[in-house]
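## Example record

The block below lists the input lines for one assembly entry, exactly as stored, with component labels intact.
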Amino acid sequence: QVQLQESGPGLVKPSETLSLTCTVSGGSISYYYWSWIRQPPGKGLEWIGYVYYSGNTNYNPSLKSRVTISVDTSKNQFSLKLRSVTAADTAVYYCARPRDHGDYVPFDFWGQGTLVTVSS
Amino acid sequence: QSALTQPASVSGSPGQSITISCTGTSSDVGSYNLVSWYQLHPGKAPKLMIYEVSTRPSGVSNRFSGSKSGNTASLTISGLQAEDEADYYCCSYAGSSIVVFGGGTKLTVL
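Predicted structure tokens for the full assembly:
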């Protein structure tokens, strides 16, 4: 059974860069699109973007200018970097994988989520 | 790309049926049969309940069903149970490798 686990700092200062890593266990990172999704407190889910195992990426247009998602197949990990953060970026961040390889959706496997707070 | 529109809340008594709507546009929900629904309990990972508009993953109760008409998708839960109380989110592929979620609906079982 595939398992995903987010890791990274729980507190980031305004204007700095939020960095998270998702470690995939129980399966290969190959041939899938791997997404980051977030949920600000009291708000809905927001898709941030994906990285394909080959390194191809696509991002939510609203975040595109600040986001980089990358993959490290040797470590079975993929990562999120969100630059110039503000309090509005405070959220629970999830990593997720679709049900079938080659598909963008639906998200069948999720990490437990990690809360990142942006505050000085 | 705007979020899909869901009612903020719905409620029902045990045993009753409820329906949650998810309204998008002709660019997302209306164009693709790639609508999925997720159940969120506080502190737990989201759970896929319905995909491709109306398909239930293995292990999901047949009390959950999905449908779509035009730009609006719907999730129906029949025979409401206390354990169904949660937040529900719809999601759609929106073309150009973009994914969009709904704003979420809080289901209260009275």
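The CA atoms of residues 30 and 70 of chain A lie 13 Å apart. DSSP finds no helices and eleven strands in chain A.
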